[in-house]
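Rotation project, supervised by the postdoc (A.L.). Task for the rotation student: set up a whole-complex structure prediction and record inputs and outputs verbatim in this book. Inputs entered:
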Amino acid sequence: MPRGRPRVLLDGPIDKWLDQFLPHLSVDCVVFGFHGGDLKLLVVKWPGLDVWTLPGGYVGLEQSLEEAAHQVLRFRTGLRHVHLRQFQAFGRLGRKEAFGRKLFLTRYSDVDPDLWVFKRVVSIGYYALVDFQKARPTTDPWSDSCAWYPVDAHPPLAYDHDGIVGCAREALRAALDVPGAGASLLPERFTMPELQRVHEAILGRPLDRRNFQKRMLDRGGVERLAERRRGGAHRAPFLYRFTVSPDGVGF
Amino acid sequence: MPRGRPRVLLDGPIDKWLDQFLPHLSVDCVVFGFHGGDLKLLVVKWPGLDVWTLPGGYVGLEQSLEEAAHQVLRFRTGLRHVHLRQFQAFGRLGRKEAFGRKLFLTRYSDVDPDLWVFKRVVSIGYYALVDFQKARPTTDPWSDSCAWYPVDAHPPLAYDHDGIVGCAREALRAALDVPGAGASLLPERFTMPELQRVHEAILGRPLDRRNFQKRMLDRGGVERLAERRRGGAHRAPFLYRFTVSPDGVGF
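Outputs recorded:
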């Protein structure tokens, strides 16, 4: 479980709050939700500027990487039990230092360029699959918007964050092979077309309905319930639920 | 390409050489080779002690993570063009700090416990697939042995390094699905039984000969040559070579 450290401490003298964190390190979270047949991405906006980034944070001196990522998720979505997977570390020189300093200068009149935050920061990338309906996007003093966008139509992101999203999508595609994949994106009971749409959104291509259904049922991890979804224009489709949880829900 | 920074600088006052590196960060390399039908692991030994670890190193202030990992590989094996893949960051509290200090005390009479190297170090894990025949294991002033062991029968490793090896094997298994996988472990021309043995060693279980051959040929990326391997006791087997290079050789 993440520790109960409050998140909004990043105020006052910059060098003082920076001292609470492991220098040169951050976590960035690629948060996916599923809504209206679309895969959505959670992005945050720098106050007063048209600058968007992934939600992220630094790593407390006594905090594991996972705890730091869970803390970002908990703060940004209100969710505690989130399917979170580390997928890659990003350590390219120049990935954010110059632009980061420019942004900080919009909030602090004078920023010491020798602070670690303006030198190299290596960021550990996590992706999260959350239930869109339950997430409550939340701003903080460092963001005046925290919002969902379609993953194929979000504002361009600062730093190397667009590249980080691309790597997260690739990792997510690879993870689709596991029975139960995508469970965290759907409500507890779902229809086969909804599950198919999740796979299609992640893969970025349409799938054949019959083959998809057969493959899902053959590989197990999903069971058909006695109930059907009522109220649609079409014949009421069966409801399904996952019987396995590869997503590690229960963190 | 890795930069030409000499590797063996870690001598003299400890705080001085630590200043060359990004604090609290390291790379650890899980180096796999294939020889005599076995998957081998390259491990190094602390001088004068029965303490074994993965080859690793710190990250230069102006060095990317990949460069740091390539530098370790180049130093430890003499190889420049190595298939190297980042697979996970390890940031658990207590993963090495206390034991690390104990080890350093065997070389320095007095070590400042406030140095970053004895606080938390987050390590970025890379695995490498190298041609066993071409690698030249090399020691340095911080190791009196650098040697291959069967991956299932190596000395227990210090810190969390046994766990890192386990994660690397898992990542390697997942990567076997890609046509051409394992190319870097084999010589340029190989027999189908040799390729099968590589897959078996990585998966840790025997595979059916006919199915394996069919699957390899069906998925492409490997071609049969006109020549056969001569000199064995059995009927001379055909030689094959890869026509794709998923392993990113040519770094």
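Student's summary: Residues 183-242 of chain A form a domain with the Arc Repressor Mutant, subunit A fold (CATH 1.10.10.10).
Supervisor addendum: Chain A touches chain B through 22 residues (CB under 8 Å).
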